[in-house]
Specification:
Strand order of the largest sheet of chain B: 2-1-3-4-6-5-7
Number of domains of chain A: 2
Largest interface: A-B, 39 and 36 residues
Distance between the termini of chain B: 45 Å
Number of strands of chain B: 7
Order of helices and strands of chain A: EHEHEHEHEHEHEHEEHEEHEEHEHEH
Shape of chain A: globular
Number of domains of chain B: 1
Helix content of chain B: 25-40%
CATH superfamily of chain B: Thiamin diphosphate (ThDP)-binding fold, Pyr/PP domains
CATH class of chain B: Alpha Beta
Helix content of chain A: 40-55%
Structural class of chain B: alpha/beta
CATH topology of the largest domain in chain A: Rossmann fold
Oligomer: heterodimer
Largest sheet of chain A: 7 strands, mixed
Number of helices of chain A: 12
CATH class of the largest domain in chain A: Alpha Beta
Largest sheet of chain B: 7 strands, mixed
Strand order of the largest sheet of chain A: 3-2-4-5-7-6-13
Strand content of chain A: 15-25%
Chain lengths: 354, 243
């Protein structure tokens, strides 16, 4: 079934399709469509919507529902995600699957309600305390808001790692035609660790307190091993005109859509441009970037709606072998297509801009 | 062979308590387990352990338990209960956890009328971190952060949680008991049983229990229990505030 819907609604419906029946959330713009949708939709399918008293409460309700074995979701926007950080660290340490979403807005501080990508570090490098990662998806359309949310539930259950949809105010608010699957069967994952009442079995305990530092180290090792497995098996990206490219834009979410036009316009000017769009930000497509370097890409232009965060991951992948340029907008200012086009053309022609 | 007339409850493990000798937590844990045994609920119970002295409650409870971040036990319990509405869900919390950092979760969980039971252990200070002032610290009480005693001019007055919870419309049961003497222990067990019954009948129940912290109060357990009866219960009256 095709439907013209907003990105936020597509994400919410994706969750329902994936078998999520529990949603806990607190109002914050620009993601308010999600709790509104869930408050109407979940009761229709026998699910539960609770408007929490704060993001602190939401994320800990998610902790409880996940510990109880359910597919569960919360969504928020930048300041709200900061409030959730402690809970996210606990979820990661307790190996509780769940899907979270941050529909990013301008920051830091209270910032504004314009779209931004300033929470990249917070999303992919940890964010909360301790040594953990999330599976981070960067949708670039309402369709991907739906598809990647379904995938996020499946992978989160499979690896017992919380998943995050790192979206932004444009992707959340824009309307596009979305193909809604009608016969999707959510994956069945055994959860022998879940708290269901210990009838006929020994008790289950969900916790992240390990006073013996060697036991705590073992948990950290187990987490690291899982993150390595994710790096091997779950990297996702889109390549656009990179086969013969000499200069490649790297962008995710909203700027990646603008980048496609910049690539086409640059090619019309004789510049062999391409786009690499990470779909997973963790695990990051570092091998793909490395192989572009080996395939003669001499210049990369990282474009983000922040002051250069994914830029660091691209530089690590390139490892000094090619030039890495940057074009960023901050505070909720949207990437300018003309500016991006000028920069990639200038880079192609050997200019020093960027 | 003699009949066994007193034994460890089946819902309780054989792990030795880490609590200070004479601490009320051990008694309260036991009472909870006795009631669960009597109501035959071991396989239907899911508890939430707080951050504080009782964080290791899951070492002693022989039923499913989740840990919670400091102050968020009621939110975690909400998540669990919404997924398993047929289970007995217990949120076990201390005064710093419940009445300070977790006050918002405490009030809103009660206000939503979540069908859970909150067991609130009030020992008038932060025990695990070494005896700092809690929202329940008595006026004049010396703690590591009120070296001259709690001064109401700058630190305000102790919060009476059972009364505050009782003021909320959705609450079915709010009571304050103590485990400082035999009578109090018997009343506490009755209150826990009633709280569980009311939860299973579809309501929110709150049991505040005055309990000693002899180590941080600088008293021996006998004097500490006497202090509860003579002094603490004067400010925190025992009784049923809503039923």
């Amino acid at each position: 079934m095709r439907k013209l819907i907003k990105g936020n609604d597509a994400m919410a419906e994706g969750a329902v399709i994936a078998g999520c029946r529990y949603y806990f959330g607190y109002p914050i713009t620009p993601q308010n469509e999600v709790p509104a949708y869930m408050s109407k939709r979940l009761p229709e399918v026998g699910g539960v919507f609770v408007q929490a008293e704060s993001e602190l409460a939401s994320i800990n309700m998610v902790y409880g529902a996940s510990a109880a074995g359910a597919r569960v979701m919360t969504t928020t926007s930048s300041p709200g995600f900061s409030l959730m950080m402690e809970g996210v660290s606990y979820l990661a340490a307790s190996r509780l699957p769940c899907v979270l979403a941050n529909v990013q807005r301008g920051g830091p501080g209270l910032g504004n309600i314009a779209p931004a990508q300033g929470d990249y570090f917070q999303a992919v490098k940890g964010g909360g305390h301790g040594d953990y990662r999330l599976i981070v998806f960067a949708p670039a359309s309402p369709q991907e808001m739906l598809d990647l949310t379904i995938l996020a539930f499946e992978l989160s259950d499979k690896y017992r790692v919380p998943a995050l949809i790192l979206s932004d105010g444009i992707i959340g608010q824009m309307m596009e035609s979305v193909d809604i699957p009608e016969n999707y069967v959510p994956g069945k994952v055994d959860k022998p660790w879940a708290l269901t009442g210990a009838e006929g079995r020994s008790k289950n305990v969900v916790c992240s307190l390990f006073l013996d530092e060697n036991v705590m180290q073992n948990l950290n090792t187990e987490l690291s091993d899982t993150y390595e497995e994710l790096k091997k098996s779950e990297v996702r990206y889109e390549s656009f005109m990179t086969d013969d490219a000499e200069a490649v834009i790297v962008a995710f979410g909203t700027p990646s859509r603008i980048a496609k036009n910049a690539v086409l316009r640059a090619r019309a000017e004789g510049c062999k441009a391409g786009l690499l769009r990470p779909i997973t930000l963790f695990p990051f497509p570092e091998k793909e970037i490395s192989s572009l370097v080996e395939n003669n890409v001499k210049n990369f232009l990282v474009t983000e709606m922040n002051s250069g965060q994914m830029l660091e991951d691209v530089k690590l992948a390139v490892s000094g072998r090619s030039n890495v340029h940057f074009y960023g907008t901050t505070g909720g200012v949207i990437t300018d297509e003309d500016e991006m086009t000028d920069r990639i053309i200038s880079i192609c022609k050997g200019g020093s801009r960027g | 062979m003699a009949d066994i007339i007193f034994d460890r409850p089946k819902s309780m493990t054989s792990a030795p308590f880490h609590y200070c000798p004479g601490c009320g937590h051990s008694v309260i844990h036991r009472l909870i387990c006795e009631v669960i045994d009597e109501m035959n609920l071991r396989g239907k119970t899911i508890a939430v352990a707080p951050v504080g002295c009782a964080v290791l409650a899951y070492d002693y409870f022989d039923f499913d338990v989740s840990e919670a971040a400091h102050g968020r036990a009621a939110a975690v319990a909400t998540g669990i209960k919404r997924v398993h509405p047929d289970k007995l869900v217990i949120s076990y919390q201390g005064d710093g956890d419940l009445a300070s950092i977790g006050m918002a979760e405490t009030i809103h969980t009660a206000n939503r009328g979540e069908k859970i039971t909150v067991i609130f252990v009030n020992n008038t200070n932060y025990g695990m971190t070494g005896g700092q002032m809690a929202p329940t610290t008595l006026v004049g009480q010396v703690t590591t952060t009120t070296p001259k005693g709690r001064n109401p001019e700058t630190e305000g007055y102790p919060i009476r949680m059972a009364e505050m919870i009782a003021s909320l419309q959705a609450v079915k049961y709010s009571v304050r008991t103590s485990v400082a003497d035999f009578k109090g222990i018997v009343q506490t067990k009755k209150a826990i049983k009633k709280a569980f019954e009311l939860q299973l009948a579809g309501g929110y129940s709150f049991v505040e229990i005055l309990s000693n912290c002899s180590t941080n109060w600088g008293m021996n357990p006998v004097d500490a229990n006497k202090h509860i009866v003579e002094k603490v219960a004067e400010y925190f009256p025992l009784g049923t505030f809503k039923e």
